[in-house]
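Section 3.1: Structural characterization of target chains.
Under the original work plan, the team committed to producing a structural model for every single-chain target entering the pipeline before any wet-lab resources were allocated. The record below documents one such target. The sequence was received from the expression subgroup and is listed exactly as submitted; it comprises 153 residues.
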Amino acid sequence: MRQFDLRSLRFDERNEAWRRLPVEVDPFVIGGLDYAVEDGTVELDLTVARVGGRLTLTGSLEAILIGPCQRCLEEARLPVQARATEVVLHGRSEGVEDEEAYVAGNTLALDRWVRDMIASALPDKLLCRDECRGLCPVCGVDLNRAAPDHSHA
């Protein structure tokens, strides 16, 4: 699923609605390197609250992002927990330029919203592990696998 029609929601007596939606997430580039969500799909927990013509959308997810470590280039598997809120007024994202809006004509662009949620939840450095030593700047050997006395003196 890449889009969701907000008009399909059925609100309860508190004017709230909930959905768990499988969202397809295309691979994307961070720092010139390609990353993908494990299995290409994320389960988004969507909560929508309605007050008059305004909707408040809250999304939360957990995913595994897979791609190269930014120090050693080996595969990194990064757990991601993300949460975001979007305010919609009369079928459009409120206070956002049209080309940047996640909602237009009551249609929520799930894939873009989820991708941006994931990207904003990532750490500054995407590493295979916190103690990754990276690559030798002289010869390019993976310092995680090199002998402890590796040097070029």
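The mean pLDDT is 92.
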